[in-house]
Amino acid sequence: MNSNDGGAELRLVVPGDQIDAPPGTQPGSGVYKRGDNLVATKLGELKIGGDLAHVVPTFTKYLPRSGDLVIGYVEAVMNNLWFLDVGGPFNALLPMSLAPWKVEFGAAREHMGYGDAVLARVMEVDETHSVVATMKGVGLRKIKEGTIFEMPPHLIGLVIGSNGRTLQRLKVASDCRIITTQNGRILIDGNGKGIAIARKALQMIEETGHAPGLHSRLNGILGDDE
Amino acid sequence: MVQLVPQLLRQQLAELAANDERIDGRSRWQSRDVELEVDILYNAEGSAKVVMGDTIVYVGVKFDTAAPYSDRPTSGSLMTGAELRPVAHRKYEPGPPSPESIELGRVVDRGIRESGCMDMESLCIVPGESVWRVMIDLHVLSDGGNIFDACATAAIAALRTATVPAKRFDVGEDFKLELKSTPVMCSFTRVGGRYVYDANEAEELGGDERVHITLGDEGHLHSLQKGLKGVLMPEEFAEILAQAGDKCAELRELIHSKEA
Amino acid sequence: MMGGYGDIKLLNDDGTRLDGRAVDELRPVEIKAGVLPVADGSAWVKHGLNVAVAAVYGPMEAHPRKIQRQDRAVIDVRYNMAPFSTSDRIRPGFNRRSREISKVTAEALESVVLVERFPRSKIRVEIEILAAEAGTRCVGITAASVALADAGIPMRDMIVGVASGKIEDVVVLDLDKAEDNYGQADLPMGILPNTGEIAFLQMDGDLSVEEYNLACEYNYKAASEIHELMKQALLDSASRGDA
Q: What is the pLDDT of residue A100?
């Protein structure tokens, strides 16, 4: 059995595995109730705490949630609406009324067109997974500079690190502005050398994921941890 | 097969190109590591698998007998098929063969056919009655960029290690398909304004046109193809042709190293 | 073309099969997860001389509109045999057998994937058979299940594909090519290893009820062996830290 940085035992489960949990434990994310039993529905690390059992999946697609900060790519523009690819099952809709510009009807394309990238926030998601995004908010904007790294969304937590430690190391070592989003797209802005360092580090996080010893592996790319 | 091209990516590729850099840190003419395995598919008379970065392709060579063309009664035949199936990438939708997959098959075929590496007369069984038909099938499992070179390399490697199944067809003993040479393909893509060798997925997504060059053992050109929208100047072509000489030689060495 | 096969003996005098296996023995099986870098989830399965690769993409917007379901995801399966996968080359293009297998495989997977979680979307499952040696539809189901788990698609259980049959009046587990060609019955099944439910069931040939029951028993026993390999492949992939 592996152990993570905290020293606790790592219990990996696959879909269908029965979970041994104290009676009364409720099914959380990645867990399903079948009669009196709890069953894992995803491949990942089982966590039982309080009266909840859930699985932290090793891989998951981005599912938009209200309040999420996202980077979207404009996939289509209609008269008063932009359709954004946010990496989830559906496009997010960005209506003219939630854009920062005063847009004449039919002139949406002049502000943002096919292939443009935008930093936006998910405003609401309804039961049919229809998503509305907004650009009204601090820092939300059309992205004009920088590079976007696509990280599997479930690894964003690793990129940030506990108390933001890892993200801080990345920013300092690369001397770049780095913005992480809930849909896994990371904006890196700075000079060429710095961007290359940040990309290399992010690549390594993507490839080795939750395997223990991340900070020592990062030393090779970012320099020693202070 | 429509894909979103983030404008920011094109911008980034242009900035990198201006600094003589590439998005994955390679130098301009540097290829990704190439892994080649041959003779790995149980039912194929010749087979190869090539891995280049995130690109994974399998090529199988099968034989059967057929009547020859009436104007070439002692000549065997060659055909190359390619399928860009949905398994290979999110962007490939199910349906009839796309123009992209047809182009891939035909370009790989031309390089092999026009090089004369196969002695088609040696594939005669009974003159005027039956000849061997060589069927190459390109099967892309993962499209991480530059499927052309991956497929062409696997195809020639599979051919060079193929065995003609004469016994199964009751026309004699099995024999090795002897090729006279090793045509090799090199592909260059315009990324951020300039040509680079062996584009990866991001470079193809944000890049422009591509040029495929197949060279024979002596460095002669055996086929050329320019694909996608864009134009190039003669000097640009001369530059990539010069690079192709070295790159094809490296791949040829790799292919030969897998032969018994 | 197939001279002398009418006299082929599929069972040796000591009761073992041509390849030395006992009547209830599986061919060697190897499973790996996370083998295709571009797909959301993937698996590679070698079973005897069969080789299958499966890729999963999704959930994604269901196109065309007409296949979309308001209350759940649609599972879109393509089972395909590569032209070089069989002894005689298969011409690419529409193939009725593949179309049928795609349909019943999708229906099997729909009974384990928690499709209500993704209304109006679709999950693409691409099964490619690279080498065929009898039992490809079962290998495809196994590969698809592992690929779905690798892709993080929630499932209440996985499905194990396994087949038994009858040769020379003897029920045997896991027919190989000669046994499938010259045998008397074939019973492929897709079994949920944790609940024992059957999600995939086909049969052809001639089986008495007792023979069916024995074949079924062999399938269940083998399913639990294969299931261990599926789990191991996924756990290995997870501890490698593959995304």
A: 87
In contact, C66 and C113? CB cutoff 8 Å? no
- Residue pLDDT, tens place only, C195-230: 999 999 999 999 999 999 999 999 999 999 999 999
Q: What is the pLDDT of residues C57-70, one digit of tens each?
A: 989 888 777 888 98
- Using the 8-state DSSP alphabet, how is residue C110 labeled? H
Cα of C209 to nearest chain B Cα, Å? 36
Give the pLDDT band of residue C240 (cuts 50, 70, 90): confident
Residue A207 lies in a domain: yes
Compute CA C61 distance to the chain's CA centroid, rounded to the nearest angstrom: 27
**Contacting subunits of A (3+ beta carbon pairs below 8 A):** B, C
**Residue A38: its H or E element:** strand A37-40
In sequence order, what are the beta bridge partners of A12? A45
Tens of pLDDT, residues A75-128: 888 878 899 999 888 889 999 899 988 777 777 778 888 889 999 999 988 877
- Residue A74 DSSP one-character state: E
Domain closes at, from A143, A173, A198: A143
Residues A152 and A206 in one domain: yes
Distances (CA, A) of B260 to B151, B157, B176, C108, C188: 21, 12, 11, 45, 40
Contacts of A6 (CB under 8 A, 6+ apart): none
Q: Predicted ipTM?
A: 0.94
Find residue A132's DSSP bridge partners. Answer: A93, A124
Tokens of B71: 């104007």
pLDDT greater than 90 at residue C39: yes
Say if B130 is an interface residue toward chain A (CB within 8 Å): no
Q: Which residues of A touch C (CB under 8 A)?
A: 2, 12, 14-18, 30, 32, 34, 39, 41-44, 57-61, 89-91, 127-129, 152, 154-155, 206-211
| Whether B42 and C126 lie within 8 Å, measured CB to CB | no
Work out the burial of residue A3: count CB atoms within 10 Å of its CB; fewer than 13 is exposed, 13-18 middle, 19 or more buried: exposed
The predicted pLDDT at position C242 comes to 56
Contacts of A193 (CB under 8 A, 6+ apart): none
Torsion of CA C167, C170, C173, C175, to 10 degrees: 0
For chain B, where are the E strands, in sequence order? 34-38, 46-52, 55-66, 77-83, 124-126, 130-142, 163-164, 175-176, 184-191, 194-197, 210-215, 221-227
Query: What was the pLDDT predicted at B2?
Result: 62
| Residue A131: inside a domain | yes
Verify that A173 and A122 share a domain, yes or no. no
Domain range for B22 is 7-257
Alpha-carbon span B134 to B63, nearest angstrom: 5
List chain B residues with pLDDT less than 50: none
The answer, for A49 touching chain B at a CB cutoff of 8 Å, is: no
Q: Residue B138 forms beta bridges with which residues?
A: B59, B82
**CA distances from residue B103 to B98, B110, B212, B228 in whole angstroms, order as listed:** 9, 10, 11, 11
Is residue A6 included in any domain, yes or no? no
Q: What is the pLDDT of residues A12-25, one digit of tens each?
A: 999 999 999 888 89
Give the number of A-B residue pairs with CB atoms closer than 8 Å: 35
pTM of the model: 0.92
**Residue A63 belongs to a domain:** no
Per-residue pLDDT tens over the stretch C117-157: 888 899 999 999 999 999 999 999 999 999 999 999 999 99
Phi, psi of B217 (to 5 degrees): -55, -35
Domain count of the fold of chain B = 1
CA distances from A27 to A24, A47, C154, C164 (A): 10, 11, 13, 37
Number of H helices, E strands in chain C: 4, 10
Q: Residue B152 domain-assigned? A: yes
Contact call for A143 and B8, based on CB within 8 A: yes
Domain span at A183:
147-222
